[in-house]
Structures are given as C-alpha cells and as structure tokens.
C-alpha cells in the first residue's frame, strides 16, 4: 500500500511541476513600452491552410503569441498582418523580454 501511495504522490507532483513550467502569454504593447527591454526575435504565426470561417487574423496572432511564449517573451509588438488568399494569413510580431 505504501508503494502505491508513494507512486501516486510522485505522479501528482510531476504533473504539478510540469504545469508550473507553462509559459505565460506575452503582453501586447507598443514600441515605446519596450525601449528598455531585450529584443529576442521576430516571431511569425500562420492561420494554417484552409477556409477559416472565424477569420484568419485571430488564428495567426495566436500562433505568433505561442511562439513568443515558447522563447520566453514577456511582451510583443505587432508588426505585419498579411493575408495570403481569401481565408489565410500571416501575423508577425517583435518579441521582447522585459523581465516580469
């Protein structure tokens, strides 16, 4: 019985630690807000291929925000939103680390 309890506690602890490693969504700001921050890179998100009836922009932005989160960006400044056809597009943003 002790082994089962110990194993279960280990699994719960592991999942808790992994959940704590999730990156926070970066704040969307202007160039003026990131003057004292460290530029990380320009990130790009795509809406994917297909007819996105909800509009391509939210999907492309979410994809770029996800990439920014993965590299540890605390803030992003939106750049270009470019359509590629009637239902698809690309969003770019500059990703910064402003130390949260």
Strands side by side in the biggest sheet? 1-3-4-2
Query: What average pLDDT do the residues reach?
Result: 81
- Total separate domains: 1
Low-confidence runs: 5-20
Compute the number of strand runs: 4
Count of helical stretches: 2
Largest sheet: 4 strands, mixed
Based on CA inertia axes, which overall geometry fits? elongated
The portion of residues forming beta strands comes to 25-35%
Remind me, CATH topology? Translation Initiation Factor IF3
**CATH homologous superfamily classification:** Hypothetical protein apc22750. Chain B
User: From the 3D coordinates, which CATH architecture would you assign?
Assistant: 2-Layer Sandwich
Gyration radius (Cα, Å) is 19 Å
Q: What distance separates the N and C termini? A: 44 Å
By secondary-structure content and strand pairing, the structural class works out as alpha+beta
Q: What letter string, H or E per element, gives the SSE order? A: HEEHEE
> Helicity, in percent?
25-40%
- What is the CATH C-level name? Alpha Beta
Keywords: Signal
Protein name: DUF4156 domain-containing protein
Signal peptide: 1-24
